[in-house]
Design a protein that fits this description.
single chain; alpha/beta; FAD/NAD(P)-binding domain; D-Amino Acid Oxidase, Chain A, domain 2; 3 domains; 8-stranded mixed beta sheet; 6-stranded mixed beta sheet; 11 helices; about 30% strand; binds flavin-adenine dinucleotide
C-alpha cells in the first residue's frame, strides 16, 4: 500500500489527507501544534468551497454574503451575487476536516514538527521533533506532502526557494449601523494600499475589517488609522503572513526514489488579486491527490495554474491603479457588467474577465493602459 505523510494539519493538508485516505492510501498527518485547536480566523470564500467540499464545510459557515459594495473617492458601486459568498470560521473548518480525514482512515499525530528529510530506499526518511517529550524521531514514507504554510520547512528541505510573503491583518469590530449583515464593503484607497480595505460581516452585529500590506508595522499603522477615521473600536486582531503568488511553483520533486509535493500556502496557491488562499489551496490538494492516485496526471492542477496566472495578470494591472482609475471602473459598472460580476465568482477569473471585456471593452482598455503606463515608467 502507498504510504503518504502530510506535514501540516490545516485546510489544504487535511483535505489532501481526506481525499487520499478514502481511496485506501495509508496516510499520517504530522502537526507541530500540540492540539488541533487553530486560532480563530474569519474568512470569506466563494461558493466554490461548497462544490469542492460538499457538506464537510457547512458547520464552519457563520454567514452568507449576497452583495458587495465597492467604495472609492465618495462613489459607491454594488454587485449582487447570484450564489452567496460564505463567511467561515477557519478553526471550525479545520476541526471538521480533521474529523473527516480521521473517519476516512488518516492518522493524526500532533505535537510533531517536521525538521528535514532524505532519500531512503524506495522512499524518504524524515525527521520529526517531538514537541512535548523532546527529541527527534526518524519516520519513513514513500511520499511527503508539505502543507505547512507560507514558511514551509518541507519546501526548504526539498530545495524549493522561500516564497515572498504579504501581511494580512484584520480587526473584529461592531458592524456600523449602515452595513447590512449580508453585504461586504470594500474600499479602494491606492495611496494607502495597492490592494483594498474590507469589512466582512460575520454576524448581524460583528464583522472583520482588514487590509493587505507589505510590512507588518506599516500595515498595522494603516489599519489603526482607518479604524479611527471610521470611529470603529477594534475588539481583537487576527494576522499572519501569506505568500503573494508571483509565478507557478512546480508542486512535485523527486528526492531519490521518493516523492515530495507541496499544497496550499506552502506552494503559494493564493489568488493574488484578493490574497485568498483557501479555495485555491483546496484545489491544490485535490490536484496533488489526483497526481498521487493517477501516477502524475492532474487536470485540476493545470486548471489551477491557469486560474492563478490570470489573477496575477489582473493584479499587475490593479497594482498601478490610481484613484481616478477606480473611479472610472465604478463609472463603467453598468447593469450588464454588474450582472456578469455577480454571476461569476473570483474562483473563475478567466470566464469573468472574458465576459466583462465582451460587455465593456473599455475595462480591458483601461487595464492595458494602466499596465503599459506602469511598464513605460519603469524604463530608465
Ligand atoms: C487575517 C487573514 C485573513 C485571511 N482571509 C482570507 C479570506 O478571507 N479568504 C481566503 O481564502 N483566505 C484568507 N486568508 C488566507 C488563508 O487563511 C490561507 O491561505 C489558508 O489558511 C492557508 O491554508 P494552508 O492549509 O495552506 O496553510 P496554513 O493554514 O498556514 O497551515 C499550515 C499548518 O502547518 C503547520 N506547520 C507549519 N510548520 C510545520 C512543521 N514544520 N511541522 C509540522 N507542522 C507544521 C501549522 O501549524 C499549520 O497547522 C487570510 C489570512 C489571514 C492571515
Amino acid at each position: 500500500m502507498q504510504s503518504v505523510a502530510v506535514i501540516g494539519a490545516s485546510a489544504a493538508g487535511l483535505f489532501a489527507a481526506y481525499l487520499l485516505a478514502r481511496k485506501g492510501v495509508d496516510v499520517r498527518v504530522f502537526e507541530q501544534a500540540e492540539r488541533l485547536d487553530p486560532t480563530p480566523r474569519t474568512l470569506i470564500v466563494t461558493s466554490r468551497m461548497r462544490d469542492l467540499l460538499g457538506p464537510i464545510g457547512e458547520r464552519a459557515v457563520v454567514n452568507e454574503i449576497r452583495r458587495f459594495e465597492l467604495c472609492t473617492d465618495g462613489r459607491v458601486g454594488t454587485i449582487q451575487l447570484e450564489r452567496p459568498d460564505l463567511v467561515i470560521e477557519r478553526s471550525v473548518l479545520v476541526r471538521e476536516l480533521a474529523g473527516h480525514a480521521e473517519a476516512a482512515g488518516a492518522r493524526m499525530l500532533v505535537g510533531r514538527r517536521f525538521v528535514g528529510l532524505e532519500a531512503s530506499g524506495e522512499g524518504l526518511t524524515f525527521a520529526v521533533e517531538r514537541i512535548r517529550e523532546g527529541g527527534t524521531e526518524g519516520t519513513y514514507a514513500g511520499t511527503v506532502i508539505g502543507a505547512d504554510g507560507a514558511f514551509s520547512a518541507v519546501a526548504r528541505a526539498g530545495g524549493w526557494p522561500q516564497l515572498a510573503t504579504l501581511t494580512l491583518i484584520q480587526a473584529t469590530v461592531r458592524l456600523p449601523p449602515d452595513l447590512p449583515p449580508d453585504t461586504t464593503r470594500i474600499w479602494f484607497i491606492p495611496e494607502d494600499t495597492p490592494y483594498f480595505y474590507w469589512l466582512i460581516p460575520e454576524s448581524p452585529t460583528r464583522g472583520v475589517l482588514g487590509l493587505i500590506g507589505e510590512g507588518r508595522r506599516e500595515t498595522s499603522r494603516r489599519l489603526d488609522r482607518f479604524l479611527k477615521t471610521r470611529r470603529l473600536e477594534p475588539i481583537e486582531f487576527q494576522a499572519a503572513r501569506i505568500p503573494g503568488y508571483a509565478r507557478w511553483v512546480p508542486i512535485h520533486q523527486r528526492v531519490g526514489e521518493g516523492d515530495v509535493y507541496l499544497v496550499g500556502d506552502a506552494a503559494g496557491q493564493v489568488k493574488v488579486t484578493t490574497v485568498g488562499g483557501l479555495v485555491t489551496g483546496f484545489r491544490g490538494a485535490l490536484g496533488v491527490a489526483e497526481a498521487i492516485l493517477n501516477g502524475g496526471a492532474s487536470r485540476e492542477l493545470t486548471a489551477l495554474r491557469r486560474e492563478l496566472n490570470i489573477h496575477l495578470l489582473i493584479r499587475r494591472a490593479l497594482h498601478h491603479f490610481a484613484q481616478k482609475d477606480y473611479v472610472r471602473v465604478l463609472d463603467l459598472l453598468n447593469r450588464s457588467a454588474q450582472r456578469s460580476l455577480g454571476a461569476h465568482t473570483r474562483d473563475e477569473a478567466g470566464k469573468l474577465l472574458r465576459h466583462l471585456c465582451l460587455l465593456r471593452p473599455r475595462f480591458l482598455l483601461l487595464g492595458l493602459r494602466v499596465l503599459l503606463t506602469a511598464l513605460s515608467q519603469r524604463r530608465p
